[in-house]
Design goal:
Blueprint: H1 9-24, H2 46-56, E1 64-67, H3 70-73, H4 79-91, E2 95-98, H5 107-140, E3 153-158, E4 164-168, E5 180-185, H6 188-203, H7 208-218, H8 230-238, E6 245-248, E7 251-252, E8 260-261, E9 268-271, H9 279-293, H10 300-314, H11 319-324, H12 331-338, H13 341-347, H14 368-382, H15 387-392, H16 399-406, H17 409-416, E10 422-424, E11 427-430, E12 435-437, E13 440-443, E14 449-453, E15 456-461
Parallel strand pairs: 1-2
Antiparallel strand pairs: 3-4, 3-5, 6-9, 7-8, 10-13, 11-12, 11-15, 13-14, 14-15
Helix pairs in contact: 6-9, 7-8, 14-17
Length: about 450
């Protein structure tokens, strides 16, 4: 069966097949079921796949396959596909019998069976054309076909006479099949956020990631209360509903063929509500989005050269620096293009130590023994070890890694068996007057005293 609405289809088929088996003297030993799967393609039909695997692999403990009719074997648009699967079974000595349709073994029976397959495929084509026409008519009338509402909008049900019924909460459906569902603005607060996003993106030239951070700091969150992200801001900027129009015909997916996406200029639109902002502002946002999307026309060499440019200017390369670099892809684009950011670094001739400290050239982490050897090497070079010297050596891993492996840096120094100056003080005061208690302090260059915290290393007067 192809949909959950045909919930009794499987039971009816099983009952008809059982009656046929009893009348013809068959014993049913196993059943293969594809519930909620379309017969247009073999893709996703796990029951059919298991059946063919058992037959071809010689594991079938039966001699005959009983199918209700040709359409249940499949409504393949290429009728040769249905014949191919049936031939695979016959070639292994397993016959395929259609319970509701009597086909002879001769030439005439083959012709009738082929005609039945053509009719099954034609039924799907006709039904698909009717469904497409109905969906397009609903879209032209401003109805929505389903799915959650975009940010700033809600779903409302309307009666056949056009009167408004009620507001639908997330996950709710209309109560009667004769009703229709349309989008409407969710409220002034969400509308203000949408206008802020467009103003910051177009007038202020803010990046989508920066806009998300600004909204999160202000306490304006997504519909479900989760933080804004770059992708969510992009969805708002591309939403046609903000102009009061509803777009449809964005893609086509006919008869199990691959989805074909159409350019924005080929979309159809219909007016469904009053606009939340001007068409001019929306068009300006789409123009800037196209400019940003144009970055993806950069070649791999241009992307690699961008990494070298960051390294020359900053002395290092990080994902945050890549994302902040104007005119350059984001770090995610490097992952999708090169497979990993580390591979892009190697192509740029940059050691991974320039990006993430305490790593091998292949990006793997240092072992505990390698970390302890690095601390001993640091002591042999400088005659002492402390936090400042440790942090200055980028061949050693981060403090977060040290905390995870050793507990803290002092424990790592002790396990490396190197002398270090690391004391405890009940009170000390930093240069700005902030007081701290019960923390580790240590001697540093030029007799200074340093405090190690999660925010880094700070110098303190004790």
């Amino acid at each position: 069966m192809s949909t959950d609405h045909q919930r009794f289809s499987l039971e009816n088929q099983a009952a008809s097949i059982a009656s046929y088996a009893e009348a013809e003297g068959f014993e049913i030993v196993k059943s293969y079921v594809d519930a909620g799967r379309s017969g247009l393609s073999a893709a996703g039909r796990l029951g059919l796949a298991q059946l063919l695997a058992d037959v071809i692999g010689g594991q079938a403990d039966f001699q005959t396959i009983l199918v209700l009719d040709v359409s249940r074997w499949g409504r393949y648009q290429d009728t040769d596909e249905a014949a191919h699967y049936e031939y695979l079974c016959r070639s292994r000595g397993v016959a395929v019998v259609y319970c509701a349709e009597a086909f002879g073994d001769g030439f005439a029976g083959s012709i009738v069976k082929h005609l039945k397959r053509v009719m099954a495929a034609e039924y799907s084509r006709e039904l698909s054309a009717k469904v497409r026409a109905a969906k397009r008519l609903n879209a032209e009338m401003g109805h929505t076909s389903g799915g959650p509402a975009p940010y700033g909008f809600c779903r409302k049900t309307f009666n056949p006479d056009g009167t408004e019924d009620r507001l639908l909460r997330p996950g709710e459906r209309k109560s009667r099949i004769t009703q229709s569902v349309r989008y409407a603005p969710a409220g002034e607060a969400e509308t203000a956020v949408i206008r802020t996003i467009f103003r910051l993106f177009v007038s202020k030239g803010k990046r989508q990631a920066d806009i998300a951070q600004l909204l999160n700091r202000k306490g304006s969150f997504w519909t479900d209360g989760s933080p804004w992200t770059k992708e969510r801001v992009g969805r708002v900027l591309r939403c046609e509903l903000v102009t009061g129009t509803q777009a449809f015909g964005k893609s086509t997916h006919h008869l199990a063929t691959p989805v074909q996406h159409h350019p924005r200029g080929a979309w159809a639109t219909t007016q469904v509500m009053k606009p939340l902002l001007s068409q001019r502002l929306f068009s300006a946002a789409q123009g800037r989005l196209r400019e940003l999307d144009g970055l993806y026309t950069q070649t791999e060499e241009e992307m690699v050269e961008g990494l070298r440019r960051i390294a020359r200017r900053e002395g290092k390369v990080t994902c945050s620096l890549i994302d902040a670099e104007p005119g350059l892809h984001g770090s995610r684009a490097y992952i999708s293009r090169f497979g990993s950011v580390g591979r892009a670094y190697r192509l740029a001739g940059l050691p991974l130590s320039a990006v993430k400290r305490g790593r091998h050239e292949d990006g793997s982490k240092l072992s505990r023994a390698e970390v302890l050897d690095g601390i001993r090497r640091l002591y042999e070079t400088h005659g002492r070890v402390d936090v400042a010297l440790y942090m200055a050596d980028r061949s050693l891993p981060s403090l977060r890694h040290i905390d995870a492996e050793f507990g803290n840096l002092s424990a790592a120094f002790r396990q490396a068996k190197v002398p270090h100056t690391w004391g405890r003080r009940p009170h000390y005061k930093d240069l700005t007057g902030e007081r701290c208690e019960g923390e580790n302090i240590l001697s540093g260059p030029k007799g200074g005293r340093y405090f190690l915290s999660m925010k880094g290393i700070k110098r303190y007067d004790v």
